[in-house]
Design brief:
single chain
Length: 117
């Protein structure tokens, strides 16, 4: 990931509505969620949701696919991983204790808990 892609991703997530949608999609997994269901769940007008989904899509953070009459959105985990790696690259500056608490957060993440269960 280069700096332009990182800025695009961070910019897309630097909005309460878009961050909420993205987190919802991350939690939904590869199955994704229909746009109408997202709008109802978050109580967001369809035009507002559409604008937010477009920005997240242009940043490469989400994918969409058509299923019948619905458009299903899902998080692009590979882009999310690349963004996190970009932010963490050279984090420790040779001192791993600096990033130890971040590593603990990753290990306690919801994904890890589900994998163990």
């Amino acid at each position: 990931m280069d700096i332009r892609n990182a800025v695009a991703g961070l910019s897309a997530l630097a909005h309460e509505g878009r961050l909420t949608v993205f987190r919802m999609l991350v939690q939904a997994g590869q199955t994704g969620i229909a746009a109408g269901e997202i709008a109802r769940s978050l109580k967001v007008p369809p035009n507002t949701l559409s604008a937010n989904l477009t920005i997240l899509s242009h940043a490469g953070l989400i994918d969409s696919r058509r299923e019948g009459r619905s458009i299903i959105y899902s998080a692009r985990y590979e882009t999310m991983t690349e963004l996190l790696e970009y932010l963490m690259k050279d984090c420790c500056g040779g001192s791993p204790e600096i990033c130890a608490s971040l590593a603990d957060v990753v290990l306690r993440s919801r994904c890890d808990a589900q994998a163990v269960a």
